[in-house]
Amino acid sequence: MLISGTGSNMQALVRASQQQHWQQRFGARIAGVLSNKAQAGGLAWAQAQGLPTALVEHSAYPNRAAFEAELTQAIARFDPHGRPDLVLLAGFMRILGPDFVQHHAGRLLNIHPSLLPAFPGLHTHQRALEMGCRFVGATVHHVTAEVDCGQILEQAVLPVLPGDTPESLAARVLTQEHLIYPRAVERWLAAQP
Ligand code: GRF
């Protein structure tokens, strides 16, 4: 799992993976948590849980290709066979290039705080309010070379309430993110042969 910040989605996924029915049905576990930021709160949380962690700071590499090559190697090191079944982006705030995306195609998922295909990119809640949207939401999707454009796996929809701000929307949407990301992963796992 790849994170850059608080890691609340990561925590939701870790908790889901610890549920008995996940264990019994899929034998799934979180192989490791990787952050591109040393200060990411989620990294400390994962360490405290005893999960394998890695730090790959983008700022330490001369270019994106070198950073992503190390990312790929660090992800492989999490798995005894060198290839985790899924690579989950959970608040990972770096755009990934086509080579990385191609390498992990079909098993690279992301969560985005908007009802895609509306509002790819940043500042989604502010943009939704400015557009006068009556509904907002979150989307779990496959990652492709085009940012926030891959096939959709799961969505949550919420009404915009009078007086909502980008912050109040972000907080309400985030609680839904914590439900739909585990659900999307569970569906992905259930669909595997
Ligand atoms: C979430 O809103 C996610 O959709 C977005 O960044 C935020 C990360 O939050 N990409 P957290 O680190 O999972 O708490």
From TrEMBL:
Binding-site residues, (6R)-10-formyltetrahydrofolate: 64, 93-96, 110
Pathway stated in the Swiss-Prot or TrEMBL entry: Purine metabolism; IMP biosynthesis via de novo pathway; N(2)-formyl-N(1)-(5-phospho-D-ribosyl)glycinamide from N(1)-(5-phospho-D-ribosyl)glycinamide (10-formyl THF route): step 1/1
Chain ranges of the Formyl transferase N-terminal domain: 2-185
Binding, N(1)-(5-phospho-beta-D-ribosyl)glycinamide: 7-9
Active site: 112 (proton donor)
Marked site positions, Raises pKa of active site His: 148
Gene3D superfamilies: Formyl transferase, N-terminal domain
Keyword Transferase: yes
Pfam families for the chain: Formyl_trans_N
Reactions that this protein is recorded to catalyse: N(1)-(5-phospho-beta-D-ribosyl)glycinamide + (6R)-10-formyltetrahydrofolate = N(2)-formyl-N(1)-(5-phospho-beta-D-ribosyl)glycinamide + (6S)-5,6,7,8-tetrahydrofolate + H(+)
Single Gene Ontology BP annotation: 'de novo' IMP biosynthetic process
Organism superkingdom: Bacteria
Enzyme Commission number(s) of this protein: 2.1.2.2
One GO cellular component term: cytosol
Swiss-Prot/TrEMBL keywords: Purine biosynthesis, Transferase
GO MF term (any one): phosphoribosylglycinamide formyltransferase activity
Purpose: Catalyzes the transfer of a formyl group from 10-formyltetrahydrofolate to 5-phospho-ribosyl-glycinamide (GAR), producing 5-phospho-ribosyl-N-formylglycinamide (FGAR) and tetrahydrofolate.
Family: Belongs to the GART family.
Matches recorded under HAMAP family: PurN (MF_01930)
PANTHER family for the chain: PHOSPHORIBOSYLGLYCINAMIDE FORMYLTRANSFERASE
Protein name: Phosphoribosylglycinamide formyltransferase
Origin species: Serpentinimonas raichei
Lineage: Bacteria, Pseudomonadati, Pseudomonadota, Betaproteobacteria, Burkholderiales
